[in-house]
Amino acid sequence: MRATPQLHTAQGIWAGMRYYMGHFFYPNMYREFLSIQNAHKVERGVRLQTAIKANKVDFRALLALPVTDHAHPYKMEYPWEKVISADSRDLSMYGKWYSSKILSFYESNQHHKFGVLMDDMVNARGWWNRAARTRCPIDKVVHADRRVMRYRVLKDKYIYEDKSNWVHPIDNVAWFGPYIMMVADEWEEKWGFFAGQEIEY
C-alpha cells in the first residue's frame, strides 16, 4: 500500500486540524460507515433465520467458530477489507473513486502506523464492552492491551512504528466488534430496547 505523504495528513500538533478538515471535506464518512454496519446486521439476520428455519445449520456450532470466520453469525467486515482485495482494473470509475476514498479514510486514521488494529481502540468504558471482553479469547484481549499501551507511548512521542510493523488493511479485521454485537443482541432480546443500532449506545 502506498503511504500518504506526511504533508497531506498533518502530523504531530496539526493532527487536530487534519481531523476537522476531514469532517469539513467528507462530513458523511461516519454516517456511511454506520449504514454499512447496520446493513451487514440485517443481512446476517435474514441469512441466519432462513438457514435455521430450513434446519440447515446448527447455530451453536456456528457460534463456536472464530468471529473472523465468514461462516460466523456475527462476522463483521470493514470497508477497506473489500476494496484492498479488489482489482482496480475491474472497477468502474465510481469504484476506483470509492476505493480511493475508503483507503484515504483508512490512511487518515493513522492507527495502523502505530501497529494497532481498529478494534484494539475500543475502550472498556461501556458495560457492553466490558461484557464483550469476558467472551473474547483472553490471549486476543491481552495482546490488544499491549498494542494499545505501546501505541500510547509512541503517540506521545509523535513517532510511528517501523513500516514493517504497520497494519495492512487486509489484516485489520473486526476481532472484537462481533462480541459487542452478541452482548447487545442478548440485551435487546431480554429487555426489548437498543433495537440493535450501534449509534444508540
Provide structural commentary.
- It is a single chain.
- With 201 residues, this protein is mainly α.
- It is built from 8 helices and no strands.
- It has helices at 15-25, 29-53, 59-63, 79-84, 93-109, 127-135, 138-156, 177-191.
- Helix 6 (127-135) crosses helix 8 (177-191).
- The longest helix is centred in the first third of the chain and has 25 residues, at 29-53.
- The radius of gyration is 18 Å and the shape is globular.
- The relative contact order is 0.13.
- The model is unreliable at 1-11 (pLDDT under 50).
Helix/strand/pairing class, anyone? mainly alpha
N-to-C series of helices and strands? HHHHHHHH
What gross morphology would you assign? globular
Low-pLDDT stretches are 1-11
Overall pLDDT level: 79
Described by strand count, sense and barrel closure, the largest sheet is: none
**Amino-to-carboxy terminus distance:** 34 Å
What brief labels describe this structure?
201 residues; mainly alpha; 53% helix; globular; disordered N terminus
Entry summary:
With 201 residues, this protein is an all-alpha fold.
Secondary structure layout:
Blueprint: H1 15-25, H2 29-53, H3 59-63, H4 79-84, H5 93-109, H6 127-135, H7 138-156, H8 177-191
